[in-house]
Amino acid sequence: MPDPVPYKLSISRKVILGVVFTLVMLGMIALVSLISTRRFLATSAAVGEVREVLERSERAQRYFMEMESGVRGFMLSGDDDALIPYEHGQSFIIQELQGLRKLTAQNEEQQERLSRLQVLVGRGFAVHASGIERRREGGAVAAAQYFSNKENRREEDAIFTQIRDELNEIDQAERLHLDELIEQRESIGSVNTSLVLGGTVLTCIALVVAGIVVLRDIAQRKLGEEKLEYERNLLRQIMDTIPDRIFVKDREGCFTRDNAAHRLHLGLETEDGVVKKSDADFFSAELAKRYREDDIAVLGGTKTMVNVEEPGATPDGREIWLETTKVPLMGPDGKAIGIVGVSTDITKRKANEERLRHYAQQLQRSNEELQNFASVASHDLQEPLRKIQAFGDRIRARFSGQLGEQGSDFLARMMDAADRMQTLIQDLLKLSRVTTRALPFERCDLAETVRGVLGDLELKIASTSGRVTAAGLPVIQADPTQMRQLFQNLVANALKFQPPDTRPEVLIAGRTFPNFNGELPDVPAGEPLCEIRVQDNGIGFSQEFAEQIFSPFKRLHARTEFEGSGIGLSVCRKITDRHRGKIVAHSTEGRGATFIVTLPLNQPQSP
Predict the structure, then answer these.
(1) I want to staple 508 with a disulfide (CB 3.0 to 4.6 A). Which of 143, 156, 262, 470 is the partner?
(2) What is the pTM of this model?
(3) pLDDT tens digits, one per residue of 278-301
(4) Cβ-count burial of 303 within 10 angstroms (0-12 exposed, 13-18 middle, 19+ buried)?
């Protein structure tokens, strides 16, 4: 399975995410600020209540002091006006204590202290009331006794001391609570400020990062668009430089893109004249229908069109031949979204193929005529030639004495011409039989073949005192008979074309190598080849005749110098051609010659 394509956010989605993130951050900041503000306000309200408790506690202490002073003033003076602060303070103290109870309703310790304080205050009121009653009934004497009575004074002092202690404890507890509340309020304010500041900073950073990301994406998108436009222009230029006609169609058969060659075929100059049009706008109804049927079959996968040769037509109705390829154009989801087509005008090629077919037929007829000629030469021509030779022999045997010197010379020339004619006919048969009597390719050991050839030429080698050596000859796929004929001709020529009184030296050497440098064009690159060199020390020839010597009956010397018809090397060339090989000659006049035969080690099939 193909690797999954990583998901990439678009610029609009990134902007939306950035806005949502900013709104979320602002909402969180607002929520935190609201909670912190509420806590701050609650703490501030609690601070106000504590301060009110302290104020009421201070007023209660002040009222006790005023009550005590009023009572002492009345005890000394007996004036009822001195009891006015006492009477006012008594009602105020009760109000303050009730207020303290309400303000500290949630504090159990303070409630316990206030309960004890109320009891003490009631006892204090009772003590004051007893002293005031004595003073009114007993006068100054009773007041003096009251002040002189240490036990009464001790009890009174103890009560009022306990009242002040309770009020002080209430005051100290509230002051400690006040300090805690103030510290908590400051902490809440600091935290709130930090959170708001931090959230604001994070939001700003997020906005900056989002802006950078969006700007970067916009820059990348711009670069991508520029690259895409560059690639489009490059694709358009490449398509326009291709001589084949390239076109793209959608599923409905309408053109979406083409190249200059296709527009030239349609007689148009710009792509606008092709886009959104179909074959029906340019060709006949029958041809457009056939094209549409092919498109539908290719889209549906029921037909494959690769290098299909088909008749076509130009928009003006001229008939042509096209080689067409149509393949489905796949979308990102793997479904066919259109057709990509390439067509080439092969009208000239079809005409050339027709001419080649005609030439092949002519060549086949020529080959048949050549085979017929070979058959005639081997039977019909040789039969009268044998009669000439037979009657010539009879004339020489019976009437040689009656012919005279001139008649005998004429008869000898006639017999010599007949012998040459027979040799020519036999050599022509050898040349034609390279093809007509060829055998299938099989495993052929060239070393064994050369040994057989040297055995056949044993007398010739011995008569010339020559020496023939062979080395490095491989095993190949070939026609063994023709390989024997090839070496027979080459070695025989090397022994024949020698200067007088020279001992022939013939070296046959072979090697194998891959066909990497195109030594044999008809053999695939990398296939193994063999090279065979036949080198002699004979008379040689000028290099300008290196190609002519392979022509039939081509001779470089007179018949009186060297025998033969000049057909042997032609047979060698025809044998190497049949084996997809080649033969070349290198020589310098008077310095011997080297014939190089190059053959593939393997043949694709037997001919």
Answers:
(1) 470
(2) 0.41
(3) 888 888 888 888 888 888 888 888
(4) middle
